[in-house]
Amino acid sequence: MFVSEIFQSLQGEGRYAGHPSIFVRTSGCNLRCIWCDTPHTSWHAEGEHLTVAEILQQTKAWVQVEHAVLTGGEPLLQRDLPELVTEMRAGGHLITVETAATHFLEGLRPDLFSLSPKLSNSRPGSDHPKARALHDGNLNLDIVPRFLATDCDVQVKFVVETAADLAEILTLVERWRLPRDQVYLMPQCDNGDLLVERGRVVAELCRQEGFNFTGRMQIELWGNERGT
Ligand code: SF4
After folding, report:
1. Is the CB–ligand 1 distance for residue 41 below 6 Å?
2. Would the pTM of this model clear 0.85, i.e. be above it?
3. How far is the CA of 60 from the centre of ligand 1 (A)?
């Protein structure tokens, strides 16, 4: 498995925000979101190749931490991800897998699939033609229903830049018949000031439409140093 970093922190987003969690961040992604907050796992993927046993050797330092988050990059590009999920669940952890949901792995059964389907606000500009072509070619939202059809819990997070993103979100929520309680909107931002500014817009959309709001604790508290 190509791994960027392994650490322990608090989950910053979504249903388990604030819960102490072990993070295994894989490196490598099939998308190139223009606002990617972990470009060291996508635009310029860096990391080291570790076996599942080597990862478990590191995570066993936090055996008392209940939650574990397998994130990226795009962790579903790692073929041994199901084995890591199985082993960590056997060790007593509750596993969240964070994914953009453009790729599905048979046999992968975490406790929670945290899907983050990318909207058109993620698309690289014409000044990045290769990245744009790769992003457009791989952004296949038709894969999402395969996750919804599993027996795993699911949350769906949409990254919102402006109120104009709402129309796209509503179309997808209707297409996938998502219960609103499973849907989280979170502001696209890379600093605390923008989090507050856009967060107010997103909170109002959530209030109007009955979606969940999620902030981004890793930006609010630590400037994106530690978290999802
Ligand atoms: S899917 Fe995630 S890791 Fe990949 S480019 Fe987009 S934000 Fe970055």
Report:
1. yes
2. yes
3. 27
Tell me the one-letter amino acid at 189: C
Closest atom of ligand 1 to CA, residue 73: 3
User: CATH homologous superfamily of domain 2-157?
Assistant: Aldolase class I (3.20.20.70)
Q: What is the pLDDT of residue 219?
A: 82
Give per-residue pLDDT as tens, 167-187. Answer: 999 999 999 999 999 999 999
User: What region does 209 belong to: left with phi over 0, alpha with psi -120 to 50, or beta?
Assistant: alpha
Tell me if 29 CB under 6 Å of ligand 1.
yes
Ligand 1 pocket mutation pick from 74, 78, 103, 139 by most atoms within 8 angstroms of CB: 74
Map residue 190 onto helix, strand or coil: coil
Q: What is the DSSP string of 35-57?
A: T-S-GGGTTT---EE--HHHHHH
What residue has token string 């609103």? 180
Which residues contact residue 116 at a Cβ distance below 8 angstroms, ignoring those fewer than 6 apart?
Answer: 98, 99, 100, 101, 156, 157, 158, 159
- Structural domain boundaries in the chain: 2-157
Q: Measuring from atom 2 of ligand 1, which residue has the nearest CA?
A: 73
Three-state secondary structure call for residue 10: strand
Tens digit of pLDDT for each residue in 130-176?
Answer: 999 999 999 999 999 999 999 999 999 999 999 999 999 999 999 99
Q: Is 77 in the pocket of ligand 1 (CB under 6 A)?
A: no
| Cα–ligand 1 centroid distance for 58 (angstroms) | 25
